[in-house]
Specification:
mainly alpha, CHAD domain, 72% helix, 0% strand, globular, CHAD_dom_sf, CHAD_dom, CHAD domain-containing protein
Length: 311
């Protein structure tokens, strides 16, 4: 008889499962498969967010939400989510976002600075204060995901998807487009996304944080589209494309984290005068490093530009 004492463990955060689309699928069937994949990722991370306030579970739930909203944007010319549901999605994103921002500051940005500078003393109380903000906001996120409002949102999305609720508000031309082959639709989406990214990317040199943010959003949307439709194309075509996009997005994300950190540190300074010196030191450090990633970013951009969107 097994008498070993067993302790509950924190559930592992769940990333998106591999999505398999058939070239024979029509647009409507492919949309349902993509949305189901996104909803599965969101729902799989509920326990980690509610019971354990797990940092990575929250992150993966947010990724699932971003993927879902990106999918809705890709298909919005042929079907549309009701306005009320879009507003509820916006509410959920707003409940989860602040905790993630403070997680990055407390768990990534500040530890990286502490590891690279000698003046540790003023950083410690700032990091503790940031961790406290993150913990408090995890409680807010957990309350939102445990709420009846969240359950209603997920339930309505599930029913809208299963019952193909978009059909009630469609024009005849939209119904025809929903029956077209997903391969043709995907090709048009990927080409459109890549053109938008290339247009914004031309302004990367000497770009300010806002311009870099716009490139990051375009790279993210292009990457999600490529991942959604990856099974429709040869791996040797898709994998280098997605890998290059991921590297570009990651570097832009690090730059964006530094920009966001400045605003969060200002909030800490305003709330507690004892943190002003430490916050000012960190903000100065981040400002001084502001241009150091430009060289790497340009290299990543040059690596991406020769690649063509799968199609």
């Amino acid at each position: 008889m097994d008498t070993a004492v067993r302790f509950p463990t924190t559930p592992k955060a769940v990333k998106a499962h591999a999505l398999k689309l058939s070239p024979r699928m029509n647009v409507e069937k492919a949309f349902q498969a993509i949305m189901r994949n996104c909803l599965d990722q969101i729902e799989a991370n509920e326990a980690g967010v509610i019971k354990y306030h797990d940092v990575e579970s929250l992150h993966q739930m947010r990724v699932g939400l971003r993927r879902l909203r990106s999918a809705l944007g890709m298909f919005d010319e042929v079907l549309s989510l009701p306005v009320a549901l879009r507003q509820e999605l916006d509410w959920l994103v707003a409940q989860l976002g602040p905790a993630r921002d403070w997680d990055v500051l407390a768990g990534s940005t500040l530890p990286a600075i502490r590891a690279s500078v000698d003046a540790l003393a003023p950083l410690v109380p700032v990091q503790l204060a940031a961790a406290g903000r993150a913990n408090a906001l995890h409680a807010v996120a957990a309350e939102a995901v445990a709420s009846e409002r969240y359950q209603d949102l997920i339930g309505h999305l599930e029913r809208w998807l299963d019952e193909r609720g978009w059909r009630a508000m469609q024009l005849p031309a939209d119904r025809v487009r929903l029956k077209m082959r997903i391969a043709d639709f995907a090709k048009a989406i990927l080409e459109k996304d890549q053109q938008r990214l290339l247009k914004r990317g031309r302004k990367l040199k000497h770009a300010d944080p806002e311009a870099r943010h716009r490139v990051r959003i375009a790279a993210k949307k292009t990457r999600y589209a490529a991942e959604f439709f990856a099974s429709l194309y040869p791996r040797k075509t898709v994998r280098p494309y997605v890998r290059a996009l991921a590297s570009l997005q990651d570097e832009l994300g690090l730059m964006n984290d530094a920009s966001v950190a400045g605003g969060l540190l200002a909030q800490l300074s305003e709330a507690d005068a004892s943190l002003r010196d430490g916050s000012a030191f960190i903000r100065g450090y981040l400002a001084g490093r502001g241009g150091q990633g430009d060289g790497k970013l340009r290299k990543l951009w040059k690596r991406f530009v020769p690649l063509r969107a799968p199609g």
